[in-house]
Request: fold
Amino acid sequence: MVLPRRRGGHNQNPCPCPRRAVLPPAALLLLFLLAAVALLYVSPPPLSDHPAFASSRYRSSHALLNSSGGGVPVEPARRVISPVPRGGWTAADDQWGSKLASKFYGCSNSSSKFLDSGVITHPDRYLMIVTSGGLNQQRTGIIDAVVAARILNATLVVPKLDQTSFWKDASDFAQIFDADWFISSLSKDVRIVKVLPEKLRAPHRMRVPRKCTPRCYLNRVLPVLLKKHVVRLTKFDYRLANRLDSDLQKLRCRVNYHALRFTDPIQEMGEKIIQRMRERSTHFIALHLRFEPDMLAFSGCYYGGGEKEKRELGAIRKRWKTLHVSNPEKERRHGRCPLTPEEVGLMLRALGYTNDVHIYVASGDIYGGAKTLEPLKALFPNIHTKETIASKDELAPFSKYSSRMAALDFIVCDGSDAFVTNNNGNMAKILAGRRRYLGHKRTIRPNAKRLYSLFLSRGNMSWDAFSSKVRMFQKGFMGEPKELRPGRGEFHENPSTCICEKTDPKTQTKSNPQSEQGSSNGTEGGKATSEPTVPNYTDEELGGSSAEDDAPVEKEDDAPVEKEEIVDAEAEDDALVRPDDPELEEVLSD
Reply:
Protein backbone atom coordinates (compact mmCIF):
# COMPACT_ATOMS: atom_id res chain seq x y z
CA MET A 1 0.00 0.00 0.00
CA VAL A 2 0.98 3.62 -0.38
CA LEU A 3 1.13 5.85 2.69
CA PRO A 4 -0.39 9.31 2.33
CA ARG A 5 2.07 12.11 1.59
CA ARG A 6 2.87 14.44 4.44
CA ARG A 7 1.50 17.93 4.39
CA GLY A 8 3.87 20.84 3.90
CA GLY A 9 4.95 20.90 0.25
CA HIS A 10 6.62 18.79 -2.40
CA ASN A 11 10.16 18.88 -1.03
CA GLN A 12 9.59 16.27 1.64
CA ASN A 13 11.68 13.08 1.46
CA PRO A 14 9.80 10.46 -0.53
CA CYS A 15 8.43 7.49 1.32
CA PRO A 16 10.91 4.60 1.25
CA CYS A 17 8.08 2.07 0.93
CA PRO A 18 8.17 -0.18 -2.15
CA ARG A 19 6.05 0.72 -5.15
CA ARG A 20 2.66 -0.98 -5.40
CA ALA A 21 2.16 -3.68 -8.01
CA VAL A 22 0.28 -2.68 -11.17
CA LEU A 23 -2.57 -4.99 -12.12
CA PRO A 24 -2.96 -5.93 -15.76
CA PRO A 25 -5.90 -4.33 -17.65
CA ALA A 26 -7.79 -7.61 -17.83
CA ALA A 27 -7.78 -7.94 -14.05
CA LEU A 28 -8.99 -4.36 -13.56
CA LEU A 29 -11.88 -4.97 -15.98
CA LEU A 30 -12.86 -8.10 -14.09
CA LEU A 31 -12.88 -6.26 -10.75
CA PHE A 32 -15.04 -3.48 -12.21
CA LEU A 33 -17.61 -5.98 -13.51
CA LEU A 34 -17.76 -7.78 -10.18
CA ALA A 35 -18.34 -4.46 -8.33
CA ALA A 36 -21.16 -3.50 -10.72
CA VAL A 37 -22.92 -6.83 -10.20
CA ALA A 38 -22.61 -6.47 -6.42
CA LEU A 39 -24.24 -3.02 -6.52
CA LEU A 40 -27.23 -4.38 -8.41
CA TYR A 41 -27.87 -6.92 -5.64
CA VAL A 42 -27.31 -4.74 -2.58
CA SER A 43 -28.77 -1.42 -3.73
CA PRO A 44 -32.23 -0.55 -2.31
CA PRO A 45 -35.01 0.15 -4.83
CA PRO A 46 -35.51 3.69 -6.07
CA LEU A 47 -38.17 5.77 -4.35
CA SER A 48 -40.50 5.66 -7.33
CA ASP A 49 -40.40 1.81 -7.31
CA HIS A 50 -41.39 1.49 -3.65
CA PRO A 51 -44.82 -0.05 -2.94
CA ALA A 52 -45.94 3.33 -1.56
CA PHE A 53 -45.96 4.53 -5.17
CA ALA A 54 -47.49 1.45 -6.72
CA SER A 55 -50.94 3.00 -6.89
CA SER A 56 -49.92 6.63 -6.96
CA ARG A 57 -48.62 8.28 -10.07
CA TYR A 58 -45.29 9.93 -9.32
CA ARG A 59 -45.44 13.71 -9.15
CA SER A 60 -43.34 16.56 -7.91
CA SER A 61 -44.38 18.06 -4.58
CA HIS A 62 -46.07 20.95 -6.36
CA ALA A 63 -48.00 18.94 -8.93
CA LEU A 64 -51.26 18.47 -7.04
CA LEU A 65 -54.08 17.20 -9.26
CA ASN A 66 -56.90 19.40 -8.01
CA SER A 67 -60.15 20.47 -9.61
CA SER A 68 -58.29 22.36 -12.29
CA GLY A 69 -56.62 19.22 -13.55
CA GLY A 70 -53.38 21.20 -13.59
CA GLY A 71 -49.97 19.99 -12.58
CA VAL A 72 -47.50 18.34 -14.89
CA PRO A 73 -45.91 15.14 -13.58
CA VAL A 74 -42.16 15.42 -13.32
CA GLU A 75 -40.15 12.23 -13.76
CA PRO A 76 -36.77 12.01 -12.04
CA ALA A 77 -33.90 12.45 -14.44
CA ARG A 78 -31.64 10.06 -12.56
CA ARG A 79 -31.42 7.93 -9.46
CA VAL A 80 -28.71 8.48 -6.90
CA ILE A 81 -28.22 5.65 -4.45
CA SER A 82 -27.26 7.20 -1.11
CA PRO A 83 -26.57 5.50 2.20
CA VAL A 84 -29.40 5.38 4.71
CA PRO A 85 -28.77 7.96 7.47
CA ARG A 86 -28.80 6.80 11.05
CA GLY A 87 -30.92 8.22 13.83
CA GLY A 88 -34.45 9.50 13.82
CA TRP A 89 -37.66 8.05 15.22
CA THR A 90 -38.32 4.30 14.86
CA ALA A 91 -41.89 3.94 13.67
CA ALA A 92 -41.97 0.15 14.01
CA ASP A 93 -41.62 0.45 17.78
CA ASP A 94 -43.66 3.57 18.54
CA GLN A 95 -46.32 3.90 15.84
CA TRP A 96 -49.24 4.07 18.24
CA GLY A 97 -47.67 5.47 21.37
CA SER A 98 -44.54 6.52 23.19
CA LYS A 99 -42.57 4.08 25.31
CA LEU A 100 -41.86 6.96 27.69
CA ALA A 101 -45.52 7.94 28.17
CA SER A 102 -45.98 5.78 31.27
CA LYS A 103 -43.40 7.89 33.10
CA PHE A 104 -45.54 11.05 32.89
CA TYR A 105 -49.02 12.02 34.02
CA GLY A 106 -51.32 15.02 34.14
CA CYS A 107 -51.19 16.93 37.43
CA SER A 108 -53.54 19.89 37.82
CA ASN A 109 -54.48 19.91 41.50
CA SER A 110 -54.16 23.29 43.17
CA SER A 111 -51.71 24.04 45.94
CA SER A 112 -52.64 24.68 49.56
CA LYS A 113 -52.24 28.42 48.91
CA PHE A 114 -55.11 28.39 46.40
CA LEU A 115 -58.09 29.35 48.57
CA ASP A 116 -61.65 28.14 48.08
CA SER A 117 -63.87 30.34 45.91
CA GLY A 118 -66.28 30.76 48.82
CA VAL A 119 -63.55 32.60 50.70
CA ILE A 120 -62.27 34.94 48.01
CA THR A 121 -65.35 35.70 45.85
CA HIS A 122 -66.96 39.11 46.40
CA PRO A 123 -70.78 38.96 46.21
CA ASP A 124 -71.13 42.20 44.22
CA ARG A 125 -68.73 41.40 41.36
CA TYR A 126 -69.97 39.71 38.19
CA LEU A 127 -67.95 39.04 35.05
CA MET A 128 -69.54 38.32 31.68
CA ILE A 129 -67.61 37.45 28.53
CA VAL A 130 -68.49 37.07 24.85
CA THR A 131 -66.28 34.64 22.95
CA SER A 132 -65.10 34.99 19.36
CA GLY A 133 -64.29 32.71 16.41
CA GLY A 134 -64.83 29.01 15.84
CA LEU A 135 -65.33 26.27 18.41
CA ASN A 136 -61.72 25.89 19.49
CA GLN A 137 -60.96 29.61 19.60
CA GLN A 138 -64.05 30.00 21.77
CA ARG A 139 -62.79 27.18 23.96
CA THR A 140 -59.61 29.13 24.73
CA GLY A 141 -61.77 32.16 25.59
CA ILE A 142 -63.89 30.13 28.01
CA ILE A 143 -60.80 28.75 29.73
CA ASP A 144 -59.28 32.19 30.14
CA ALA A 145 -62.61 33.64 31.30
CA VAL A 146 -62.59 31.32 34.32
CA VAL A 147 -59.05 32.39 35.19
CA ALA A 148 -59.91 36.08 34.71
CA ALA A 149 -62.86 35.72 37.11
CA ARG A 150 -60.53 34.13 39.64
CA ILE A 151 -58.05 37.01 39.30
CA LEU A 152 -60.85 39.52 39.89
CA ASN A 153 -62.46 37.49 42.72
CA ALA A 154 -65.68 37.75 40.76
CA THR A 155 -68.61 35.49 39.92
CA LEU A 156 -68.52 34.32 36.32
CA VAL A 157 -71.69 34.19 34.26
CA VAL A 158 -71.70 31.21 31.87
CA PRO A 159 -69.95 32.58 28.75
CA LYS A 160 -71.90 33.67 25.72
CA LEU A 161 -70.74 32.05 22.49
CA ASP A 162 -70.10 33.83 19.21
CA GLN A 163 -73.27 33.51 17.12
CA THR A 164 -72.72 36.23 14.50
CA SER A 165 -69.33 35.57 12.93
CA PHE A 166 -68.30 33.69 9.80
CA TRP A 167 -69.32 30.39 11.40
CA LYS A 168 -72.97 31.50 11.80
CA ASP A 169 -73.74 29.00 14.53
CA ALA A 170 -76.69 29.90 16.76
CA SER A 171 -75.77 27.37 19.45
CA ASP A 172 -75.45 28.63 23.00
CA PHE A 173 -73.09 27.30 25.67
CA ALA A 174 -75.49 24.68 27.04
CA GLN A 175 -76.13 23.24 23.57
CA ILE A 176 -72.44 22.38 23.11
CA PHE A 177 -71.02 21.98 26.62
CA ASP A 178 -72.48 20.42 29.76
CA ALA A 179 -73.24 23.61 31.69
CA ASP A 180 -74.18 21.92 34.97
CA TRP A 181 -70.94 19.93 35.07
CA PHE A 182 -68.99 23.06 34.13
CA ILE A 183 -70.44 24.92 37.11
CA SER A 184 -70.20 22.14 39.68
CA SER A 185 -66.72 20.87 38.80
CA LEU A 186 -65.24 24.36 39.20
CA SER A 187 -67.24 25.36 42.27
CA LYS A 188 -64.19 25.38 44.55
CA ASP A 189 -62.19 27.49 42.09
CA VAL A 190 -64.66 30.06 40.77
CA ARG A 191 -68.29 30.75 41.50
CA ILE A 192 -70.27 30.40 38.24
CA VAL A 193 -73.94 31.16 37.57
CA LYS A 194 -76.05 30.62 34.45
CA VAL A 195 -77.65 34.08 34.43
CA LEU A 196 -77.26 37.39 36.20
CA PRO A 197 -79.49 38.19 39.17
CA GLU A 198 -82.59 40.16 38.16
CA LYS A 199 -81.37 43.31 39.87
CA LEU A 200 -78.23 43.46 37.74
CA ARG A 201 -79.19 44.01 34.12
CA ALA A 202 -76.94 46.80 32.86
CA PRO A 203 -73.38 45.46 32.45
CA HIS A 204 -70.60 47.81 31.49
CA ARG A 205 -69.10 46.77 28.15
CA MET A 206 -65.35 46.95 27.60
CA ARG A 207 -62.48 45.12 25.95
CA VAL A 208 -59.10 44.30 27.43
CA PRO A 209 -55.85 44.11 25.45
CA ARG A 210 -54.67 40.81 24.15
CA LYS A 211 -52.25 38.93 26.40
CA CYS A 212 -53.48 40.98 29.36
CA THR A 213 -51.58 40.05 32.52
CA PRO A 214 -53.16 39.66 35.99
CA ARG A 215 -51.85 43.14 36.86
CA CYS A 216 -53.50 44.41 33.69
CA TYR A 217 -56.88 43.01 34.84
CA LEU A 218 -56.47 44.49 38.30
CA ASN A 219 -55.58 47.92 36.90
CA ARG A 220 -58.08 48.06 34.03
CA VAL A 221 -61.07 45.92 34.90
CA LEU A 222 -61.23 45.86 38.70
CA PRO A 223 -61.85 49.63 39.16
CA VAL A 224 -64.77 49.44 36.72
CA LEU A 225 -66.06 46.29 38.39
CA LEU A 226 -66.02 47.97 41.80
CA LYS A 227 -68.06 50.84 40.43
CA LYS A 228 -70.45 49.08 38.02
CA HIS A 229 -70.56 45.63 39.70
CA VAL A 230 -71.07 43.94 36.32
CA VAL A 231 -68.52 44.01 33.48
CA ARG A 232 -69.00 42.45 30.06
CA LEU A 233 -65.78 41.75 28.16
CA THR A 234 -66.37 41.53 24.41
CA LYS A 235 -64.45 39.65 21.73
CA PHE A 236 -62.77 37.60 24.41
CA ASP A 237 -60.02 35.78 22.53
CA TYR A 238 -56.38 35.63 23.64
CA ARG A 239 -57.17 38.23 26.29
CA LEU A 240 -55.06 36.62 29.00
CA ALA A 241 -51.29 36.34 29.19
CA ASN A 242 -49.74 33.07 28.13
CA ARG A 243 -47.49 32.90 31.21
CA LEU A 244 -49.13 32.88 34.61
CA ASP A 245 -48.22 31.58 38.03
CA SER A 246 -48.44 27.85 38.64
CA ASP A 247 -51.85 27.80 40.35
CA LEU A 248 -53.51 29.82 37.60
CA GLN A 249 -51.97 27.61 34.93
CA LYS A 250 -53.26 24.53 36.73
CA LEU A 251 -56.69 26.15 36.86
CA ARG A 252 -56.49 26.48 33.08
CA CYS A 253 -55.84 22.73 32.91
CA ARG A 254 -58.75 21.86 35.19
CA VAL A 255 -61.08 23.89 32.99
CA ASN A 256 -59.71 22.59 29.69
CA TYR A 257 -59.23 18.91 30.48
CA HIS A 258 -61.91 18.27 33.13
CA ALA A 259 -64.63 20.92 33.30
CA LEU A 260 -65.37 21.41 29.59
CA ARG A 261 -67.39 18.39 28.58
CA PHE A 262 -69.55 18.21 25.48
CA THR A 263 -73.27 17.57 25.89
CA ASP A 264 -74.40 13.95 25.97
CA PRO A 265 -75.78 13.91 22.38
CA ILE A 266 -72.51 15.27 20.96
CA GLN A 267 -70.31 13.03 23.12
CA GLU A 268 -72.33 9.91 22.34
CA MET A 269 -72.26 10.55 18.58
CA GLY A 270 -68.52 11.17 18.68
CA GLU A 271 -67.91 7.97 20.64
CA LYS A 272 -70.12 6.06 18.20
CA ILE A 273 -67.90 7.19 15.31
CA ILE A 274 -64.80 6.10 17.25
CA GLN A 275 -66.39 2.71 17.93
CA ARG A 276 -67.15 2.23 14.24
CA MET A 277 -63.59 3.16 13.31
CA ARG A 278 -62.30 0.54 15.75
CA GLU A 279 -64.63 -2.06 14.28
CA ARG A 280 -62.76 -1.55 11.04
CA SER A 281 -59.28 -1.59 12.56
CA THR A 282 -57.67 -1.98 15.97
CA HIS A 283 -55.82 1.32 15.57
CA PHE A 284 -56.62 4.34 13.44
CA ILE A 285 -55.17 7.71 12.52
CA ALA A 286 -57.14 10.98 12.70
CA LEU A 287 -55.94 13.57 10.19
CA HIS A 288 -56.81 17.25 10.54
CA LEU A 289 -56.13 18.04 6.90
CA ARG A 290 -56.94 21.81 6.75
CA PHE A 291 -56.94 21.91 2.96
CA GLU A 292 -59.98 24.15 2.51
CA PRO A 293 -59.99 26.96 -0.11
CA ASP A 294 -59.93 29.70 2.55
CA MET A 295 -56.90 28.17 4.25
CA LEU A 296 -54.99 27.77 0.99
CA ALA A 297 -55.90 31.27 -0.15
CA PHE A 298 -54.62 32.77 3.08
CA SER A 299 -51.38 30.81 2.90
CA GLY A 300 -50.58 32.31 -0.50
CA CYS A 301 -49.11 28.95 -1.55
CA TYR A 302 -49.26 27.37 -5.00
CA TYR A 303 -50.06 23.69 -5.53
CA GLY A 304 -49.59 23.17 -9.26
CA GLY A 305 -53.16 23.80 -10.39
CA GLY A 306 -52.25 26.28 -13.12
CA GLU A 307 -54.09 29.49 -13.89
CA LYS A 308 -57.39 28.11 -12.62
CA GLU A 309 -55.99 27.60 -9.12
CA LYS A 310 -54.32 31.02 -9.11
CA ARG A 311 -57.54 32.68 -10.25
CA GLU A 312 -59.80 30.87 -7.76
CA LEU A 313 -57.59 31.24 -4.70
CA GLY A 314 -56.56 34.75 -5.72
CA ALA A 315 -60.21 35.84 -5.79
CA ILE A 316 -60.71 34.51 -2.25
CA ARG A 317 -57.52 36.19 -1.06
CA LYS A 318 -58.72 39.59 -2.28
CA ARG A 319 -61.53 39.50 0.29
CA TRP A 320 -58.95 40.39 2.94
CA LYS A 321 -57.34 43.75 2.36
CA THR A 322 -54.75 43.16 5.07
CA LEU A 323 -53.01 40.37 3.12
CA HIS A 324 -50.01 41.43 1.08
CA VAL A 325 -48.84 39.85 -2.16
CA SER A 326 -47.24 36.53 -1.35
CA ASN A 327 -44.24 34.66 -2.69
CA PRO A 328 -45.41 31.01 -2.91
CA GLU A 329 -41.91 29.54 -3.10
CA LYS A 330 -40.72 31.58 -0.12
CA GLU A 331 -43.77 30.60 1.93
CA ARG A 332 -43.17 26.95 1.17
CA ARG A 333 -39.45 27.12 1.93
CA HIS A 334 -40.26 28.55 5.33
CA GLY A 335 -42.73 25.77 6.10
CA ARG A 336 -45.83 27.98 6.05
CA CYS A 337 -47.76 25.95 3.49
CA PRO A 338 -50.00 23.01 4.41
CA LEU A 339 -48.73 19.77 2.94
CA THR A 340 -50.73 18.34 0.06
CA PRO A 341 -52.77 15.22 0.86
CA GLU A 342 -50.21 13.20 -1.10
CA GLU A 343 -47.31 14.64 0.89
CA VAL A 344 -49.09 13.81 4.13
CA GLY A 345 -49.52 10.25 2.87
CA LEU A 346 -45.86 9.97 1.87
CA MET A 347 -44.78 11.25 5.28
CA LEU A 348 -46.94 8.67 7.05
CA ARG A 349 -45.72 5.82 4.84
CA ALA A 350 -42.14 6.90 5.50
CA LEU A 351 -42.86 6.85 9.24
CA GLY A 352 -43.81 3.20 8.91
CA TYR A 353 -47.61 3.27 8.64
CA THR A 354 -48.69 0.66 6.11
CA ASN A 355 -51.40 1.04 3.49
CA ASP A 356 -53.91 -1.04 5.48
CA VAL A 357 -54.11 1.66 8.19
CA HIS A 358 -57.51 3.35 8.46
CA ILE A 359 -57.53 7.17 8.46
CA TYR A 360 -60.32 9.45 9.68
CA VAL A 361 -60.13 12.81 7.89
CA ALA A 362 -61.40 15.78 9.90
CA SER A 363 -61.81 18.61 7.43
CA GLY A 364 -64.19 21.03 5.82
CA ASP A 365 -64.71 21.26 2.08
CA ILE A 366 -61.39 20.18 0.57
CA TYR A 367 -60.16 22.29 -2.33
CA GLY A 368 -60.51 20.23 -5.47
CA GLY A 369 -62.89 17.76 -3.83
CA ALA A 370 -62.47 14.02 -4.23
CA LYS A 371 -59.81 14.42 -6.91
CA THR A 372 -57.50 16.14 -4.44
CA LEU A 373 -57.78 13.15 -2.10
CA GLU A 374 -57.00 10.57 -4.81
CA PRO A 375 -53.21 10.52 -4.19
CA LEU A 376 -53.82 10.05 -0.44
CA LYS A 377 -56.30 7.26 -1.12
CA ALA A 378 -53.78 5.59 -3.41
CA LEU A 379 -51.37 5.43 -0.45
CA PHE A 380 -54.05 4.69 2.18
CA PRO A 381 -57.21 3.22 0.60
CA ASN A 382 -59.14 3.17 3.90
CA ILE A 383 -60.14 6.85 4.19
CA HIS A 384 -63.18 7.83 6.26
CA THR A 385 -65.04 10.97 7.37
CA LYS A 386 -67.94 11.45 9.74
CA GLU A 387 -70.21 11.59 6.70
CA THR A 388 -69.08 8.13 5.54
CA ILE A 389 -69.12 6.59 9.02
CA ALA A 390 -72.47 7.97 10.19
CA SER A 391 -75.77 8.23 8.33
CA LYS A 392 -77.46 11.48 7.36
CA ASP A 393 -80.18 10.84 9.91
CA GLU A 394 -77.60 10.38 12.66
CA LEU A 395 -75.83 13.61 11.74
CA ALA A 396 -79.04 15.61 11.22
CA PRO A 397 -79.12 17.09 14.77
CA PHE A 398 -75.58 18.45 14.22
CA SER A 399 -75.17 19.11 10.49
CA LYS A 400 -76.70 22.60 10.53
CA TYR A 401 -74.37 23.78 13.30
CA SER A 402 -70.69 24.21 12.47
CA SER A 403 -69.56 24.12 16.10
CA ARG A 404 -71.37 20.88 16.82
CA MET A 405 -69.90 19.26 13.70
CA ALA A 406 -66.47 20.55 14.76
CA ALA A 407 -67.07 19.03 18.20
CA LEU A 408 -67.60 15.61 16.61
CA ASP A 409 -64.28 15.90 14.79
CA PHE A 410 -62.63 17.03 18.04
CA ILE A 411 -63.88 13.94 19.90
CA VAL A 412 -62.75 11.52 17.18
CA CYS A 413 -59.34 13.17 16.84
CA ASP A 414 -58.92 13.11 20.61
CA GLY A 415 -59.84 9.41 20.73
CA SER A 416 -57.59 8.36 17.85
CA ASP A 417 -54.43 6.30 18.33
CA ALA A 418 -52.40 8.78 16.28
CA PHE A 419 -53.42 12.36 15.54
CA VAL A 420 -51.88 14.13 12.54
CA THR A 421 -52.28 17.85 12.04
CA ASN A 422 -51.48 19.71 8.85
CA ASN A 423 -51.38 23.18 10.37
CA ASN A 424 -50.89 24.73 13.79
CA GLY A 425 -54.24 26.39 14.39
CA ASN A 426 -56.34 26.32 17.54
CA MET A 427 -57.70 22.79 17.18
CA ALA A 428 -54.22 21.39 16.52
CA LYS A 429 -52.74 23.19 19.54
CA ILE A 430 -55.53 22.31 21.95
CA LEU A 431 -55.53 18.66 20.92
CA ALA A 432 -51.73 18.48 21.09
CA GLY A 433 -51.78 19.81 24.66
CA ARG A 434 -54.70 17.60 25.64
CA ARG A 435 -53.02 14.49 24.28
CA ARG A 436 -49.83 15.38 26.18
CA TYR A 437 -51.78 15.82 29.40
CA LEU A 438 -53.74 12.59 28.97
CA GLY A 439 -50.79 10.28 28.40
CA HIS A 440 -48.68 11.64 25.53
CA LYS A 441 -50.73 9.91 22.85
CA ARG A 442 -49.01 9.91 19.47
CA THR A 443 -49.41 13.37 17.93
CA ILE A 444 -47.68 14.15 14.63
CA ARG A 445 -47.09 17.62 13.20
CA PRO A 446 -45.17 17.79 9.92
CA ASN A 447 -41.85 19.59 10.09
CA ALA A 448 -42.86 21.34 6.87
CA LYS A 449 -39.74 23.46 6.58
CA ARG A 450 -37.41 20.46 6.60
CA LEU A 451 -39.71 18.24 4.55
CA TYR A 452 -40.04 20.79 1.74
CA SER A 453 -36.60 20.21 0.23
CA LEU A 454 -36.91 16.48 0.84
CA PHE A 455 -40.10 16.23 -1.21
CA LEU A 456 -38.44 18.15 -4.04
CA SER A 457 -35.53 15.71 -4.24
CA ARG A 458 -37.31 12.50 -3.37
CA GLY A 459 -36.97 11.10 -6.90
CA ASN A 460 -33.19 11.14 -6.61
CA MET A 461 -32.85 8.84 -3.63
CA SER A 462 -33.83 5.37 -2.52
CA TRP A 463 -37.00 4.81 -0.53
CA ASP A 464 -34.96 3.74 2.51
CA ALA A 465 -32.97 6.96 2.37
CA PHE A 466 -36.12 9.04 1.94
CA SER A 467 -37.99 7.38 4.81
CA SER A 468 -34.97 7.58 7.09
CA LYS A 469 -34.65 11.31 6.47
CA VAL A 470 -38.37 11.81 7.13
CA ARG A 471 -38.01 10.03 10.49
CA MET A 472 -34.94 12.11 11.29
CA PHE A 473 -36.66 15.40 10.41
CA GLN A 474 -39.78 14.44 12.37
CA LYS A 475 -37.87 13.86 15.58
CA GLY A 476 -39.22 16.52 17.92
CA PHE A 477 -42.58 16.64 16.09
CA MET A 478 -44.07 13.32 17.21
CA GLY A 479 -45.69 14.20 20.54
CA GLU A 480 -42.99 12.60 22.66
CA PRO A 481 -42.50 13.65 26.30
CA LYS A 482 -40.06 16.53 26.73
CA GLU A 483 -40.22 17.51 23.06
CA LEU A 484 -40.85 21.12 24.05
CA ARG A 485 -39.06 22.97 26.80
CA PRO A 486 -41.28 23.98 29.73
CA GLY A 487 -42.90 27.34 29.03
CA ARG A 488 -42.22 27.24 25.30
CA GLY A 489 -45.02 28.12 22.88
CA GLU A 490 -48.66 28.56 23.83
CA PHE A 491 -49.74 26.99 27.09
CA HIS A 492 -52.72 25.24 25.50
CA GLU A 493 -50.27 23.36 23.27
CA ASN A 494 -47.57 22.79 25.87
CA PRO A 495 -49.17 22.63 29.35
CA SER A 496 -45.86 21.83 31.00
CA THR A 497 -47.00 23.12 34.41
CA CYS A 498 -49.65 20.39 34.45
CA ILE A 499 -47.44 17.47 33.39
CA CYS A 500 -45.40 15.68 36.02
CA GLU A 501 -42.77 12.98 35.77
CA LYS A 502 -43.10 9.97 37.99
CA THR A 503 -40.32 9.51 40.51
CA ASP A 504 -38.73 6.19 41.38
CA PRO A 505 -39.79 5.30 44.95
CA LYS A 506 -36.31 3.91 45.57
CA THR A 507 -34.79 7.32 44.99
CA GLN A 508 -37.13 9.19 47.34
CA THR A 509 -35.69 9.92 50.73
CA LYS A 510 -37.04 11.42 53.91
CA SER A 511 -34.60 14.26 53.51
CA ASN A 512 -36.84 15.70 50.79
CA PRO A 513 -40.28 16.09 52.41
CA GLN A 514 -41.50 18.42 49.67
CA SER A 515 -41.48 15.58 47.14
CA GLU A 516 -43.97 13.71 49.36
CA GLN A 517 -46.35 16.62 49.75
CA GLY A 518 -47.40 16.41 46.12
CA SER A 519 -49.91 19.11 45.39
CA SER A 520 -48.38 21.60 47.80
CA ASN A 521 -45.55 22.17 45.41
CA GLY A 522 -47.50 21.51 42.27
CA THR A 523 -45.92 18.18 41.42
CA GLU A 524 -48.49 15.86 43.06
CA GLY A 525 -45.95 13.23 44.00
CA GLY A 526 -43.87 13.59 40.88
CA LYS A 527 -41.11 15.90 39.86
CA ALA A 528 -40.90 18.75 37.41
CA THR A 529 -40.02 17.69 33.90
CA SER A 530 -36.43 18.33 32.91
CA GLU A 531 -35.03 19.85 29.75
CA PRO A 532 -35.88 17.89 26.60
CA THR A 533 -33.33 16.05 24.53
CA VAL A 534 -34.51 16.91 21.04
CA PRO A 535 -32.85 18.71 18.12
CA ASN A 536 -32.43 22.43 18.64
CA TYR A 537 -34.96 23.50 16.03
CA THR A 538 -35.78 27.15 15.47
CA ASP A 539 -38.90 28.82 16.86
CA GLU A 540 -40.28 28.95 13.33
CA GLU A 541 -39.95 25.17 12.93
CA LEU A 542 -41.43 24.43 16.35
CA GLY A 543 -44.32 26.79 15.77
CA GLY A 544 -43.86 28.87 18.88
CA SER A 545 -41.50 31.09 20.78
CA SER A 546 -40.11 30.67 24.23
CA ALA A 547 -39.58 34.35 24.81
CA GLU A 548 -41.86 37.18 25.80
CA ASP A 549 -40.93 40.53 24.44
CA ASP A 550 -41.72 44.08 25.42
CA ALA A 551 -43.95 44.82 22.44
CA PRO A 552 -46.82 47.13 23.42
CA VAL A 553 -50.25 45.58 23.79
CA GLU A 554 -53.20 47.09 21.95
CA LYS A 555 -54.82 50.05 23.69
CA GLU A 556 -58.52 50.47 24.43
CA ASP A 557 -60.14 53.84 25.01
CA ASP A 558 -56.75 55.50 25.46
CA ALA A 559 -56.22 53.63 28.69
CA PRO A 560 -52.63 53.65 29.92
CA VAL A 561 -50.68 50.46 29.40
CA GLU A 562 -48.85 49.20 32.44
CA LYS A 563 -45.13 48.83 31.97
CA GLU A 564 -45.26 45.34 33.44
CA GLU A 565 -47.52 44.05 30.65
CA ILE A 566 -45.70 41.76 28.29
CA VAL A 567 -46.71 39.93 25.17
CA ASP A 568 -45.63 36.54 23.90
CA ALA A 569 -43.60 36.69 20.73
CA GLU A 570 -45.62 34.35 18.54
CA ALA A 571 -44.41 32.49 15.48
CA GLU A 572 -45.68 33.00 11.97
CA ASP A 573 -48.26 30.24 12.18
CA ASP A 574 -49.99 32.02 15.04
CA ALA A 575 -50.68 34.86 12.63
CA LEU A 576 -53.23 32.56 11.04
CA VAL A 577 -55.52 33.21 13.97
CA ARG A 578 -54.44 36.73 14.85
CA PRO A 579 -54.75 38.93 11.79
CA ASP A 580 -56.14 42.42 11.98
CA ASP A 581 -59.05 41.55 9.69
CA PRO A 582 -61.94 40.25 11.88
CA GLU A 583 -63.46 38.09 9.13
CA LEU A 584 -60.10 36.55 8.30
CA GLU A 585 -59.54 35.80 11.96
CA GLU A 586 -62.89 34.04 12.21
CA VAL A 587 -62.35 31.95 9.08
CA LEU A 588 -58.93 30.69 10.14
CA SER A 589 -59.49 30.42 13.88
CA ASP A 590 -59.80 26.63 13.89
